[in-house]
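queue> pop job 88
queue> type: inverse folding (structure -> sequence)
queue> payload:
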């Protein structure tokens, strides 16, 4: 468990062959319109994709994105073309995009319509780990003509996560439960990227022992009370998160009800991570898991010599 980030250092080898995918297969070029085959008009159908386009410095090319694209704040001002699952096909066609970046949640019928009329669509894999988050980012970077920039950002993210996770190596890992839904009670399993957040920050995900192959699982409150975690994280916003926090506090035998270690965390950042926001989240969780540790920008290689573009 503690050696988790030694496994991700293999990313450094990816940068020796930019024309190949992370698993060694040739990445086929996406036939896109635009100047020199580089898309100048982009529609993003995923919040993390939109944030990644900003990180790559091509935000001025975004002509449309979803109503859930809120990071960075200026993304809220971009033309909206629907939700993550339901999009306005006619509006997107009218925007004349050179490429549409879709996700595993994008309506397949909409994707088929775009492809039928000749609009290039790149559907990114559903990321289940930090590794796959980085793979998707590298692919986006290559398509928009920012492959070198994407590689530098991933290099920095890998170094930063490794440096941050080193701060907790050898310490007693807190047992953590991450709630991602209510009625039924959903939680992150070991096959989700949220598990990588926990491990990277020096925690232990109590759902690991269930050996579930699913990204997320349904659990009972009684099971959680029996396992009695040291920390409960609730992925929610506003009153819904506070309501759940109050619900857990009713179980007086829970350690978290006695210690106050029930935390509501931002779903925008934790459910739609980029390589850079992954680092930010690891840093934040370390302070939650280990209150005496105060990892700051000096504890990692943040910024990577200026390769990560500031976003407004």
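queue> result:
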């Amino acid at each position: 468990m503690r050696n988790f980030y030694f496994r991700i250092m293999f990313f450094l080898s990816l940068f020796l062959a930019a024309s190949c995918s992370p698993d060694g297969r040739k990445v086929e070029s996406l036939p896109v319109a635009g100047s020199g085959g580089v898309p100048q008009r982009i529609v993003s159908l995923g919040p993390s994709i939109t944030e990644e386009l900003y990180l790559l410095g091509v935000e001025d090319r975004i002509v449309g994105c979803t109503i859930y694209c809120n990071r960075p704040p200026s993304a809220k001002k971009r033309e909206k073309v629907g939700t993550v699952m339901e999009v306005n096909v006619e509006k997107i066609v009218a925007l004349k995009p050179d490429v549409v970046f879709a996700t595993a949640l994008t309506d397949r019928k909409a994707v088929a319509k775009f492809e039928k009329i000749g609009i290039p669509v790149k559907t990114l894999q559903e990321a289940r780990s930090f590794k796959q988050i980085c793979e998707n980012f590298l692919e986006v970077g290559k398509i928009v003509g920012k492959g070198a920039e994407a590689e530098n950002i991933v290099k920095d993210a890998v170094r930063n996560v490794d440096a941050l996770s080193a701060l907790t190596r050898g310490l007693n890992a807190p047992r953590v439960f991450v709630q991602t839904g209510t009625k039924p009670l959903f939680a992150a399993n070991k096959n989700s990227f949220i598990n990588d957040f926990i491990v990277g920050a020096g925690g232990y995900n109590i759902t690991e022992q269930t050996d579930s192959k699913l990204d997320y699982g349904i659990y009972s409150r009684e099971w959680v009370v029996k396992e009695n975690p040291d920390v409960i994280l609730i992925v929610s916003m506003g009153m819904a998160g506070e309501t759940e926090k109050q619900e857990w506090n009713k179980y007086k035998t829970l350690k978290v009800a006695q210690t106050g270690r029930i935390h509501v965390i931002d779903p925008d950042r934790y459910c739609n991570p980029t390589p850079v926001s992954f680092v930010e989240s690891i840093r934040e969780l370390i302070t939650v898991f280990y209150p005496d540790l105060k990892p700051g920008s000096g504890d990692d290689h943040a910024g990577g010599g200026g390769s990560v573009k500031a976003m407004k």
